[in-house]
């Protein structure tokens, strides 16, 4: 049996099994072999009509053997390491940049890299890893280098004050100096942006590796395991951020340029490097990948996954079939099996594929594919955008709000104000720990809720809950500021009632967050299920409704707060308005979906 591998874009094949018969060689047939993320591989099997050869032609159709549960669990462990660092990033870095002298109005700008890399880097890394021909596999090289970049980035962030000191920042002791440390801030921003880039480099291939390894009956279990590791990373990371004892355990971290807050940040991030290294090595050892073989001849499969009849491709229409009959052209020749004399050179095909895989082509592909989405997806995109316009201010300023509005501290104030601010930041990290625990518990309740109420009402309920919590944050802030202005004794650290209310709000937000991280993706999957293999691209378009609002908030939140005299309250008030709008539109415009089709997609941060 002679076999030639040919790849055809998804959109050209409608059935799960396709058989093409050569017109000039009736005993030759082309049949579907297997699907991959790159394309659909078709084997031209040369056989006669004898039963033995016919059975042999199907011998390569073997279902992927499931891996053991132990290997599946350990192959996902890198998710915990990445999430550990992400939790520290969420809880500590916005407050820390202000200790370097950067004003609150500009602190949100440093978060701009996250949505940019999520928009460009993650889709490109996903495509590049699909086509990686390394002998170590498709995903593991990206996981290794991405984890290495994360380790370098967090070390740069942790030691940014010391690096700035040696590059020429003020030589005054950090305990008394309250000015701007420009060089340290620049080093910090470089490390921060590198960290976002590295996070997006690891996350996509890590999830794709899980999909590659899991058998068809293990996918739900695999997703649950992956999310469980992320929950472990969240809990450990927020616990680490809430601890103020790193400097006590590692006193050598304190330097002339790095005081208490900086020393605790160093300690937490160094532990994050050790933990990530361990998790990455475990994943690389137990995730055994089969290297991807280089195809001899291939067609570019970077066309949109959603239907587009105007895109170039292989037409199997009746008119083309009749033309083949008249010209005695075999179907195999039409598919480019190496026998077409007019076929472009392989080098030219490689150049075209490299162009189609470039970041600009991927982004244009995402944007142009929006017009091919089902009509109901436009409402999904609108609600998703409003949801993230309400969520991202909380992610930016949660611990900073606790330090300033609740504990009445100031990262640039006197020693007592700095101490109060640091205590508030640690208390905010503890609130995020409670948030993560509630999120993990609620993730198991989403599926039965959607089956009983429907995904539309559950998503609307999520936005209404966010509206109530964001409005509650504004009310708590006003009560705390009023007590502070009235000079109530010991209010410098916030009254006990205000602190308790703030922690309750942090915990309650775990419920709608679990919905935001699962229901929109399940709704999108159902709406695009019959779009000719377009779910992957539809999820990519949904990602636009996440990262674009994040860019808007990163650019506008700081200046918006500055218009009202600084502080975090204006951003939370605006977030509550967006959440209310998202809830109303979700209730009125989202389609009614089958309640029996929902399956939770888990939860994650970032």
Automatic annotation (TrEMBL):
Please classify the protein's predominant subcellular localization into one broad category.
membrane
Return one GO MF term: sucrose:proton symporter activity
Membrane topology type: Multi-pass membrane protein
Composition-biased stretches, type Low complexity, lie in 45-57
Listed A to Z, the keywords are: Cell membrane, Membrane, Sugar transport, Symport, Transmembrane, Transmembrane helix, Transport
Note down the stretches annotated as region Disordered: 38-62
Q: Where in the cell is it found?
A: Cell membrane
What pathway annotation does it carry?
Glycan biosynthesis; sucrose metabolism
Under Pfam families, the record lists: MFS_1 (PF07690)
Query: What GO terms fall under cellular component here?
Result: plasma membrane
Spans traversing the lipid bilayer: 72-97, 109-129, 141-164, 223-247, 267-287, 379-397, 428-446, 458-481, 501-525, 537-557, 569-588
Family per UniProt?
Belongs to the glycoside-pentoside-hexuronide (GPH) cation symporter transporter (TC 2.A.2.4) family.
**Do you know which PANTHER family this protein is assigned to?**
SOLUTE CARRIER FAMILY 45 MEMBER 3 ISOFORM X1, SUGAR TRANSPORTER
Q: What name appears for this protein in its UniProt entry?
A: Sucrose transport protein suc3
């Amino acid at each position: 049996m002679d076999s030639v591998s040919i790849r055809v874009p998804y959109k050209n094949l409608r059935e799960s099994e396709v058989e093409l018969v050569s017109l000039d060689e009736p005993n030759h047939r082309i049949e579907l072999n297997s699907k991959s993320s790159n394309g659909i591989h078709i084997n031209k099997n040369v056989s006669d009509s004898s039963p033995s050869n016919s059975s042999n032609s199907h011998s390569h159709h073997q279902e992927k053997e499931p891996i053991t549960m132990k290997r599946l669990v350990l192959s996902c462990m890198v998710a915990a390491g990445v999430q550990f660092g992400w939790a520290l990033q969420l809880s500590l870095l916005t407050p820390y940049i202000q200790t370097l002298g950067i004003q609150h109005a500009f602190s949100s700008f440093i978060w701009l890299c996250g949505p940019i890399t999520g928009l460009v880097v993650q889709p490109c890394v996903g495509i590049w890893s699909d086509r990686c021909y390394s002998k170590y596999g498709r995903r593991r090289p990206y996981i290794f280098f991405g984890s290495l970049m994360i380790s370098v980035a967090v070390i740069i962030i942790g030691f940014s004050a010391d690096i700035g000191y040696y590059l020429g920042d003020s030589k005054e002791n950090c305990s008394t100096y309250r000015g701007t440390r420009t060089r340290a801030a620049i080093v910090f921003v470089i490390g921060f942006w590198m960290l976002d880039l590295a996070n997006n480099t690891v996350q996509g291939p890590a999830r794709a590796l899980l999909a590659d390894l899991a058998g068809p009956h293990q996918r739900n279990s695999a997703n649950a395991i992956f999310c469980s590791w992320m929950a472990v990373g969240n809990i450990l990371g927020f616990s680490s951020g809430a601890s103020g004892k790193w400097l006590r355990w590692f006193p050598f971290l304190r330097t002339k340029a790095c005081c208490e807050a900086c020393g605790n940040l160093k300690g937490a991030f160094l532990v994050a490097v050790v933990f990530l290294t361990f998790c990455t090595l475990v994943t690389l050892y137990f995730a055994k990948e089969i290297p991807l073989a280089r195809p001899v001849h291939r067609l570019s499969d970077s066309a949109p996954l959603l239907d587009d009849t105007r895109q170039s491709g292989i037409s199997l229409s009746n008119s083309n079939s009749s033309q083949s009959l008249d010209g005695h052209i075999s179907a195999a020749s039409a598919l480019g099996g190496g026998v077409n004399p007019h076929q472009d050179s392989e080098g030219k095909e490689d150049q075209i594929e490299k162009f189609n895989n470039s970041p600009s082509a991927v982004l244009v592909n995402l944007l142009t594919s929006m017009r091919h989405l089902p009509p109901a997806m436009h409402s999904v995109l609108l609600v998703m955008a409003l949801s993230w316009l309400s969520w991202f201010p909380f992610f930016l300023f949660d611990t900073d709000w606790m330090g300033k509005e609740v504990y009445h501290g100031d990262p640039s104030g006197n020693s007592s104000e700095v101490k109060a601010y640091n205590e508030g930041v640690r208390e905010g990290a503890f609130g995020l720990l409670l948030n993560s625990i509630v999120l993990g518990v609620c993730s198991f309740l989403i599926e039965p809720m959607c089956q009983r109420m429907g995904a539309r009402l559950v998503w609307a309920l999520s936005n209404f809950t966010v509206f109530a919590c964001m409005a509650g944050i504004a009310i708590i802030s006003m009560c705390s500021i009023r007590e502070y202005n009235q000079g109530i004794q010991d209010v410098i650290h916030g009254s006990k009632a205000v602190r308790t209310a703030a922690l309750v709000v942090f915990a309650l937000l775990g419920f709608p967050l679990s919905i935001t991280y699962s229901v929109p993706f399940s709704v999108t999957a159902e709406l695009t299920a019959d779009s000719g293999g377009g779910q992957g691209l539809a999820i990519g378009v949904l990602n636009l409704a996440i990262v674009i609002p994040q860019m808007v908030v990163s650019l506008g939140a700081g200046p918006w707060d500055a218009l009202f005299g600084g502080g975090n309250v204006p951003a939370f008030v605006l977030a509550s308005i967006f959440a209310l709008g998202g809830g109303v539109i979700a209730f009125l415009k989202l389609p009614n979906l089958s309640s029996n089709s929902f399956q939770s997609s888990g939860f994650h941060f970032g």
